[in-house]
Amino acid sequence: MRKLVQGTEHEYTYYSTKLTETGIDIHRVGLDILHHSALQLSGEFIKNGSRAYWDVGHLEISTCETSNFWDLLIWEKAGEKIIDWIRKVIEEKHLKEGEHILALKNNTAPDGTSYGSHENYSISRNVEFPDRFESELAPHLVTRLIYTGAGDILQDHYVLSPSAFLTSVMVSDNTMSGTGVLNTRDETHGDSSRFRRLHLQIGDALLNEVAILLRNYTTSAVLVLMEMNALKDVPKLAKPVEDMWHNVEQTNPDKWRVELVGGKVVSPIEIQRYYLSKVEAKGLVQDAHEKKAFKLWEEVLDMLEKKKSKELARKVEWLDRYFAIQEQAKISPDDPEVEMRAAKGYSEVALGRGLHYKRLKQGLIDRVLKDEDIIKAIETPPKDTRAFLRRKLCDEYGDDVFAVDWSYVSVRERDGGMRRFELPDPMATELEE
Known about the structure:
The longest helix has 26 residues, at about 70-95. The protein is globular. By secondary structure, it is an alpha+beta fold. Among the domains are: about 125-190 and about 205-345, no CATH class; about 385-420, no CATH class. It has helices spanning about 15-20, 25-35, 70-95, 130-145, 145-150, 160-165, 210-225, 240-245, 270-280, 290-305, 310, 315-330, 340-345, 355-360, 370-375, 385-395; strands at about 5-15, 40, 45, 50-55, 60, 100-105, 115-125, 150-155, 155-160, 170, 180-185, 195-200, 260, 265, 400-405, 410, 420. The model has no long low-confidence stretch (mean pLDDT about 95). The strands form 6 sheets. Strands 1, 4, 5, 6, 7 and 12 form a 6-stranded antiparallel β-sheet that branches. A 3-stranded antiparallel β-sheet has the order 15-16-17, with helices on one face. Strands 2-3 form a two-stranded antiparallel sheet.
């Protein structure tokens, strides 16, 4: 499969009753710690190519440009490590021994409000938007939640995907409320005549490595198929948003349904199998990472169909979170808040504290990455995208860099003049003439 530039954005949550009562904004404190650390590059950018900034009450990290789904997973997990390191520093500086801060990778609050956990893909401007995206990509987006959902309790219901539960329309230009399956935001951060930045808000904040891998692998593959004009026979959904709302509240696969134009009702698993077969037929399964991801996709669909829940929970986050909540409820049956606490506490990124990482340590959850690759990605950008070039320029000019963004670096020259390096191609690792 061809390289496809992609990245994710996550608004992380820090919470401490002790600090909140004093009026301290933990997120701004955390951001200040990061930007005065050895990880700082220039402006809002850190050395691994990612951007870290304050956004509507949260510390947000946008991963650097990665060229494929596997690298995306590595640099997203590196972001989690950075968030946890900041959490430790704040605890050491501002809290007494034994007092803790919660550091959460989720995207919903108990009251049902949501905040950002978004995907971005740089795709060809030649694919017509939004028409072809509604017909060819939307069926994938509204059915992938059966294996990419994070799970959560919202409005007293357990839902497979909080973002899908809170998505209200097919196409929207809103980013705060009234969000859509597709978003019209088109900040290309590059050459807008060649690229479109597809901004997706329908994904969840995930911790499970397999779930993140499948989210980005399958979506990347569908976008490449669209560029190949290979999805002309895609199943046409009659009521995609309504069916998504129905399915997102069903933990039993037998109750899932998708109505096609013409009245036929199928399972979302069948829609996913359509895309799976196209990926294989068009020869997109080539390197070792793609072969592993494709096999995982196929295995997960098989296990969903056969309802092999214990095996499936190792790879599907909404199901493992569901089991974790049930187990906590058995331990504290008289506690009316235990399920909500477990639902939110599952997302804590601190090793040994959050339910996800406790269950990972117990051998209940599968992994695909090596720790050394994640640790390396904390300080270094990928070598095959613009993030590498941006880091190179910032290192070369040092304190003479006075402005940096995704697509440019502005510096002061030795003669007192100013120079702006344009970086219009997210795949460029050398300056263009």
